[in-house]
Amino acid sequence: MTSVVSETDFTEYLDTIRRFTNEKLKPIELEVEDEGSIPEPVVQQMRELGLFGMTLPRVYGGLELSIEQQCRATYEFTQTSAAFRSRFSTTLGLASQSILFSGRPDQCNTYLPKLASGEWTGSFCLTEPGAGSDAGGIATRARRDGNEYVINGEKCYITNAPDADVFVVMARTGEADSGNKGISAFIVEANAPGLSTGRYDRKMGQHASRTSNVFFDDCRIPATALLGEEEGLGFKTAMAGINAARMHVAATCVGQATRLIEEALTYALQRVQFSRPIAEFQSVQNMLADSQAENLAARSMILETARRLDAGDLALGDMSSCKLFATEMVCRVADRAVQILGGAGYMDENIVSRMYRDVRLFRIFEGTSQIHQGIIAKEMIKDASG
Fold first, then answer.
1. Which amino acids are annotated catalytic?
2. 47 burial type by CB count under 10 A (0-12 exposed, 13-18 middle, 19+ buried)
3. Fewest CB atoms within 10 Å of the CB: 157, 280, 312, 385?
4. pLDDT tens column, 176-194
């Protein structure tokens, strides 16, 4: 993907994102977590900055950033509560990329401009109580009934479901044993009869990222809501969105780790024990150094993989390597940061303790670490076998 944004203009854009993060997001990061929502004026600023449309072409009102530029921008706006990123990440990633990948021209023209501008919030419905890593186990069913489809089923842990205007829904149109090939994708607007959302999930972290179950009870949608030209393309559609999301998650972990290292270093320089700053103790220096080195490694591998993707190389194994390494890395960094801050790091009013809880999620969604280990190994074996 070649960006239409020049490097000079993009550097200025990064500066704007950096100021927005430092001046607008960081000062309220604890407040939004306590209240469980992001103020609408802040969301409006996100819209004005184009954050909802970073991944989309200019023809639909997006910024049309390259994947490398998307990752570099993500490094900047994720150096605060991860909940801010969650407010627009599903819209720019899973939802919009699925429509861009599989949508008919009329679907792209109808929905992508609204998603790119942030006028509409998109949500992505794949996970179910009985289907997560095994997407082929989806039980939600869509039945053709004349000029309509009727959807029945339940989705869970759906990011932005309470705020969504439109859902990209994976449902089974094939037989019960049809696996991935029997899954189709649908565009379902939030006001569709028979669609409802449950109570807000109570989570370990990312409290201001609102998630809930989504219920389909004889939910009727027009047959034209089928995403694409035919049934059975849902799994490929889902993977198109998920692959993009995995790079964004990896880049998010670099931003989170950068902030954690900053907080740990600042504290280590100020905290005095045994008549000197704890930053002078080798044990603390080791934790800081390991964190810095691992974050640099993650940053570098993500940018290298992004450049390959921009050049047209799908690089599935490398994408999984980025997601696996970065998500595991940020959890190690968060643990060290809490250790360096000691009791202060365990207090709920400290951003480090909040981030410690927040980053644990990244090893689970968009494919668990174990799923990505399997993908990496399979790609290695395939390459070795010619």
1. 366
2. middle
3. 385
4. 888 888 999 999 999 999 9
